[in-house]
Amino acid sequence: MTEPLPSPRVRELIRQCAQIVSNARPEWLDELDQAVLAASPAIAADPELAAAVSRSNRANLFFWSTANVRDPGAPVPPNTGPEPLSIARELVRRGVNAFPLDAYRVGEGVAWRRLMEIAFELTSDATELHDLLQACSRSISAFVDATLAGIAAQIDLERDELTHGSHAERRETVALLLDGAPIPRSRAEQRLGYALTGCHTAAVIWTDTHDGDLTRLDRAAEAIGRAGGGRPLSVLASSATRWVWAPGALDLDVLDAAVRDSADIRVAVGTTGDGLDGFRRSHFEAIITQQMMARLHSRQQMARFTDVEMVSLITADPDRSADFVARVLGELATAGTELQETVRVFIASQCNASRAAARLYTHRNTLLRRLARADELLPRPLAEQSVSVAVALDVLRWTG
């Protein structure tokens, strides 16, 4: 049975509430994202899923608020737009089915608390507040229920699609290989169209800005084949992520040049390994690299496992790593990238000033002046803690 519309005065208050929500402050949106992602660390560690959740949060907030600006207090239809439906797609492709309910309920709670704060700022009349909050509570709950029902239906469609066709066969075969299942190598090679002998280098390619056009990911996968000198194996891990293996080592200069013009494409590369063990190890290294880039919100477009292995270990506990950086670098931590890069290159050049100046394309005296400035900012002289400084600067370099 349809609930009657609130009184004209309450409808006007709903409209004013919705107008404020539709222009939500950035810190409100950040709070919403953080609360939803905190409920599932596994989702937060996946950059593609985390970005999809953030887009869905904003889309749902905007959808409900604009509907109530147009027609305050009227039933709001479910949001069946691209953002919530992309959540269904990503969850199914990862085998996760229970997350949407928890995430949307957490988001509903955060949004409701904000809306109550707004309501108390708009009126102090007890009767108006009661009717306003009751109407908004019913509206938000019904909207979330209907949207979740739409996502559940989409999950069923996506699951049906995923379990048919050649993609499912390749994905299943790769999963068996990564799990160490005793699948005959010849059978696996036949299903994958890829030789499992020799050396392999794995990469994870993904995009943080899922706009439906994924041809850039396919081109990046092809570029990995060119960089490796052979036909790659590419598996659709999700709608905006590719797992790729190339025979042999990768020419990273070729790969960098191929993806440089697509700023939203990210690449994580494992080390080159031999046989099936190398196939697995290189992939897991690429996954660790991707997760670290997501955890640190890194702006780097491409990273190798060998570049980030130490940083990944140190930043596994974000609070302790932040304390380490602050304690070791002191004021150098906020001194700007030019001075930090000078110190980093100097240490990487085995503290040889002439060699470091050449690598930085700067005069030796300029380098020495910068190093003197760095010593003034560091809690302890560089000469006494060069290794710790190098590690701390590396953490900063990979942090967004």
Automatic annotation (TrEMBL):
Q: InterPro entries from the entry?
A: CdaR-like_regulators (IPR051448), CdaR_GGDEF (IPR041522), PucR_C-HTH_dom (IPR025736), PucR_C-HTH_sf (IPR042070)
Q: Write down the Pfam families for this protein, in alphabetical order.
A: GGDEF_2, HTH_30
Q: Which family does it belong to?
A: Belongs to the CdaR family.
Q: Where is the PucR C-terminal helix-turn-helix domain?
A: 339-393
Query: Which residue ranges does the record assign to the CdaR GGDEF-like domain?
Result: 188-291
Protein name as catalogued: Transcriptional regulator
Q: Which Gene3D superfamilies match?
A: PucR C-terminal helix-turn-helix domain (1.10.10.2840)
Source species: Mycobacterium adipatum
